[in-house]
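Annotators were shown the component list below and the corresponding predicted structure, then asked to write short factual statements about the assembly.
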Amino acid sequence: MANIRDVARKAGVSIATVSATLNDRGPVSEETRRRVWDAVKAVGYSPNAVARSLRLGKSRLIGVVLGDITNPFCTTLVRVAEEAALTADYSIIVCNSDDDPERELRLIDQLRAQHVAGILLTASGRGPDYTRRLERRDLPPLVTIDQRVEGLDRDFVGVDNRAAARMLTEYLIRLGHRRIAMISGRKGLWTADERIAGFRETMQASGIAVESALCIQAAYRSDMAEKAAVEILTGTAPPTAIIGGNNVIALGALQAILALGFRCPDDISVAGIDDVPWSGLVRPRVTTAAQPIADITALAMEWLLARIADPRKESPPARSRVFQPYLIAGDSCRAVIAHSPPAPAVA
Amino acid sequence: MANIRDVARKAGVSIATVSATLNDRGPVSEETRRRVWDAVKAVGYSPNAVARSLRLGKSRLIGVVLGDITNPFCTTLVRVAEEAALTADYSIIVCNSDDDPERELRLIDQLRAQHVAGILLTASGRGPDYTRRLERRDLPPLVTIDQRVEGLDRDFVGVDNRAAARMLTEYLIRLGHRRIAMISGRKGLWTADERIAGFRETMQASGIAVESALCIQAAYRSDMAEKAAVEILTGTAPPTAIIGGNNVIALGALQAILALGFRCPDDISVAGIDDVPWSGLVRPRVTTAAQPIADITALAMEWLLARIADPRKESPPARSRVFQPYLIAGDSCRAVIAHSPPAPAVA
DNA sequence: ACTGCGGCCCGAAACGTTTCGACGAATTAT
DNA sequence: ATAATTCGTCGAAACGTTTCGGGCCGCAGT
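Structure shown to annotators:
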């Protein structure tokens, strides 16, 4: 593969001059410039990014570490991130952490070894040890997205998860529901915990006791959710509504409901956080507290790129921006009169 | 960040010895080995992947170039590919080509500049010029997946797209449909063309003429599909069934049908290629010709990794493996008697 | 006419690895 | 006892860039 040296030889100049020409650095005469570019075309030169990275101590790669890339939330995140990266002339490396902090930290180490310019992270861990490992001074600029790490001195962009849960819980309570179940992600996952907290908060504020059997933290996975939902629904006192801590969970729960022969929303109402893919076609259309993923990702990338561009040491202190979720009412929730299951639908 | 030199100094040996120790190359005494490892821990050393890549002329990165990463087909592809890569100690770089050959070739160039070890590609182009640019000798091992390039001397793993289209077309014909429309991806996209061809073939074999107004090549995008479907449905002689060249298209068409106030399958039947995400919840459940994505991807990665591992020049000649699609019958297709729309459902 | 100064270009060092050839010491063969 | 061999280790070159300091030339200022 053609070298910068080959170009220099062909053009009859030094490699320093070639480099200067290619990077528009230093004074190079018009004549020389032309000769260099001709030589570049002639030998089919394209710069070796690896060598450049080594010299510069920086690559033009951005690492994106996600919990689960098959989750629609993550795919649009990736899409937007890649778009933003590309316009700034970066490429992105995508990694799956499976929401496992150990695996996640390993991946981050790998990315650091690759000398990525920055990292976008949905953090899956917590605790002082974990936090310390994300604050290492030898890590590239890193902004956390979606999953916050309390006490971590890094940028964060995400959504008000308690508000999202509160929104749905209030919505259901207003519809007359009292026995409301919630299935969320793994304990220790920030969004999962927050959403559960928002749920409990709201229930308590309304003077409704939360039964522990109806408040489950499993995982952001449809099979887990389905299992949990089946357990709940076949229990002694099934709920009249289920909140999914996640789009995947909501759909899993819905699947369980239908599989058990219940009807939704007639027998059981369902709501979820995060918008659902093809929401227009899933029947019933599930009511969700959606997040502005594109905005969130765009801002996170903006901050990340700014930190990357800034030569000074992490100049601005860690910022954080919390977007508000918004309710998308579907027809998966129905009003409940007293304790009798069937009731008229509600807009 | 700690150097190999730092380790050497700390351990009181040369850097050559450190390197030999870390890579289990050459004879190193047990004593020295221990000292080196201790030093590694002590200074917190982790090797610089960039420098290694430069020296070796190879990185441990695999590039994955996809048409549209938000397409569920692609996400599971990425998932499986990442899994396979990781167990072989590689990471993957994901790029979106938007099914644009120019952009795709640019991305491939970037990946080459990054010295990726190999490339997994859903090829979006065709023609001698395009083919030549994918056959450049200075490209890393490359296997094409899903989208084939006719005449390209590279490995390919995918599915029999004509068979997929044939399968659905025959299915609909057997249900009594005669006026069948098909909406597929962009002209020039291999899968799109093949699927259209399979459709035409089958129609002709059954002695049914294909109206050009009912055979549209738009793009693998839901909005495009929806528009095309609306056009077809509001035309002078709407079809009784629509085949989507893609899961996304099928869902887009379905959305259009419902939006126009038609019912599916009562008024219009729908079928699509590729499995649909959350297929269990989309109502009606759309009948699809699905592909074994995981198997396809796993094989493609196996071949790619084999080529990467093989030091000889592209040793085995280009192989190609075509999987068979399989029908998943939903309830989005209904039998048609003569030309009267409503008819009894069919299992 | 000599100094000073810009403009243009170049040589060489450095980034952090891997690897080849060589070298001293210890062991074995002659 | 000496030569040959092996073992453990090391120095140095190389991968392809970027960049710093300096050199050469011609032109303006004194």
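Statements collected:
1. The mean pLDDT of chain B is 92.
2. DSSP finds twelve helices and twelve strands in chain B.
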